[in-house]
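Troubleshooting log. The previous structure file for this entry was overwritten by mistake, so regenerating from the original sequence record. Sequence copied from the archived sheet and checked twice against the printout by T.R.
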Amino acid sequence: MKKMTNPFIGSDNVGGLYVKDGRLINDRRDGETGIAEASRIRRAVKNDRKINQIAEGIELAENKKNWRQLDF
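Regenerated output below.
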């Protein structure tokens, strides 16, 4: 039979918790459900698409302005 050992003995970092200057520091991720994480990622992707569309529109407007200034 395998002897059970305590995972907290001899380890400085257990599951994102560690001791620093005698205090227990929680360095774990925030508790977030899968649905909340998916909605956060979806919102970030949607925001990136909007930013890219605005940047493309500005670039097209500048190109159009430069095109009008050319003499043939």
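Helices lie at 34-68. Archived copy saved in two places this time.
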